[in-house]
Amino acid sequence: MAEPLLSVRDLSMTYVRRSSLFGRRARNVAALKEVSLDIEAGETLGLVGESGCGKSTLARCLLRLLRPSSGSVRFAGEDLLSLGDDAMRRMRQAMQIVLQNPFSSLNPRLNGFDLIAEPLRAHRALSRKEMRDKVVSLLAEVGLTSDFLGRHPHQLSGGQAQRIALARALALNPALVILDEPTSALDVSVQAQIINLLIRLQNQRGLTYLFITHDLSVVQHISDRIAVMYLGRIVEEAGSEQIFAEPQHPYTQALLSSTPAPDPGGRRQRIILPGTVPSAANPPAGCAFHPRCSHVMDICRTQYPAPRRTAPEHFVSCHLYDSAQDMESNSMHNLLDKDAQQ
Ligand code: SF4
Description:
The protein is an alpha/beta fold.
């Protein structure tokens, strides 16, 4: 079986937070705990969870903008955590990121031409004419005309600015694009346009996406598989249709309850979660979701639930499924690795 384009195993990220005025009291904050995931070339993995659950930290660890504390990240067959800085800089051409707010990610002093040409100037030797042609063709790919060459970010709408950010991300022909809440700052009608554009670009270029969002309904149509994250851990993962048809983790069920039901006229019963995601500096013992869970049992307060396989490609970490297949491992993907070897 071909190796996935991106393969993450047991990735943990702990940092030290100093809390007193003089920084004497330090506390370890576990932002990511034993995260494992695979993304095959050409597919979209939706990564969903509330703000503060570790999604963006994971994105930054994958690009090695943050150094994980342990675990491994393989991309296109390379072990990213052991690459030298120059090799990693070259590798980042194939791994681009698009952020939530284009107005803070785009340099306000540059116009459309320079914003898109900047990565090309750094990594490609193009003549002036080749550069202009390339920038105009990238603009066309994201649905903008050459009128936007001279416009600065403050002269753009949110949707137009996000299209420029996308064109800039595509300039170096990446294989993987990490989309970190790319539609959260946009109006609902513009969100749909950007999602459709992303799907079209993926079909035309064979792109692979990691689509990060707090809103399950946004990733429903674009994702092949969905991973749900809570306080630094992946708590459920399955195919997109399967998650929407049969969410198993109580947290996923609550997230999903705010999205429209699949059948027209159908209704989901809204589940309102009490409280917010707890601080990673002081996580609850056992299952970190237990203070908010309506199904909580005694065991949930003391023991973290090992991931269980409840269907061929459906995994969940919840004591409600303790009778399902024992993974004999702290990682659902380690089990898939074992399956692949057999
Ligand atoms: Fe709820 Fe317990 Fe499952 Fe956690 S392990 S989600 S507290 S039932």
